[in-house]
Each structure stands twice: as C-alpha cells, then as structure tokens.
Design goal:
- By secondary structure, this protein is mostly helical.
- It is 73% helix and 0% strand.
- It has helices spanning 2-7, 17-40, 49-75, 85-111, 121-146, 150-163.
- Helix 2 crosses helix 3, helix 4 (85-111) packs across helix 5 and helix 5 (121-146) packs antiparallel against helix 6 (150-163).
- The protein starts with a helix and ends in an 8-residue tail after the last helix.
- The chain crosses the membrane at residues 16-34, 54-72, 84-105, 125-154.
- This is Prolipoprotein diacylglyceryl transferase.
- InterPro entries: DUF6787.
- Keywords: Membrane, Transferase, Transmembrane, Transmembrane helix.
Length: 171
C-alpha cells in the first residue's frame, strides 16, 4: 500500500479511489474485449469459454496497464498536475466523456430524424461526428468538474477551441 501511496502522491485515503477506479475500468474493458473475442472465435458455451475469457482478460489487462503507465510517463511533463493521482482522474474523465458523447449522439440524431438506415454512410457518419463534437466539448468540462479537475479541463477546452479556430466563442 505504501508503494502505491508513494507512486501516485496520495496524501488522503479518499485519493485511493482513483487508482482503484482506474484499475477496475481497465479490467472491465479487458473483460469486454475478451468476451468479444470469445464470440468472434465461436467459443461461447463451450468448455473453453471461461479459460479463454480469463486468459484474454488478464493478458489484456496487463497490456493495457503497461500502455497507460507508459502514457503517464509521456504526459507527466505536458499535463501539469499537482499530484500524480490526478493523471488517473484525467484519463478516467476522457474515457467517460468519449463514451458518453458517442452514446448521446445516436438518440439526438434519431430525434432529428437522421438514421443510418435512411442515409448513406458517407453522410451519416460525418453528421454524427459533427453532433458528437459539441456534446464532447460540454461533457468534458462537466465530467471534469465532477472528478475535481475543472481547471485542467477548462484550460484544455480553451486551448482546443483556439486550435479549431473557435476562440471567439470564449469572449
């Protein structure tokens, strides 16, 4: 426990929430991917179902964990945070925001009558991406605020809008 506390600059017990939540999200993602592979190889309801699922889940977990730790090292100088555990919170916010904005775009498109069945994919997907973009921008700040990272995401948002040529919206 002291090793985790030292590695992630944890000062208070509630800050353990972020490494635990991050690990659980990686584990659930690895399990989800393993189940997709299970159906891909048609091993569902066979004797190999659970050994395959557990093996792929554990391998996927350790690969993803190594990848995210590598990302932390690469981004620690670019994303200035007070504590290292805040990096985990930032990654969690990006994960939640991306997934949530993609999920919210479909009902919004249904509401205005745009469906993948009645429109070519060449038109549907660019329209969907254009709908996702503003949803993502708003959710990024809201979810960042919920995780105590409002200032980081507000600065990130301003920088992103300026790079997109939409800096006039900030005035």
């Amino acid at each position: 426990m002291n090793r985790i506390k030292k590695r992630w600059d944890i000062n208070k017990n509630w800050q353990y929430l972020f490494p635990v939540l991050g690990s659980l999200m990686i584990l659930l993602t690895a399990y989800y991917i393993a189940r997709k592979f299970l159906h891909l190889f048609d091993l569902n309801n066979s004797a190999w179902e659970w050994p395959f699922t557990l093996t792929i889940t554990l391998v996927g977990y350790f690969i993803a964990l190594r990848f995210f730790l590598w990302c932390f090292e690469k981004l620690k100088n670019k994303w200035i945070t007070t504590y290292r555990w805040e990096m985990i919170a930032i990654f969690i916010v990006f994960a939640i925001t991306g997934s949530l904005s993609a999920r919210l775009a479909a009902p919004l498109l249904d509401l205005i009558g745009i469906h993948s069945e009645n429109l070519s994919g060449w038109f549907y997907w660019p329209i969907r991406i254009l709908i996702i973009l503003p949803i993502y921008q708003v959710l990024l700040v809201i979810v960042g605020w919920c995780f105590g990272q409002f200032q980081f995401f507000w600065n990130f948002e301003k920088k992103m809008l300026r790079r997109m040529g939409l800096g006039f919206l900030l005035k």
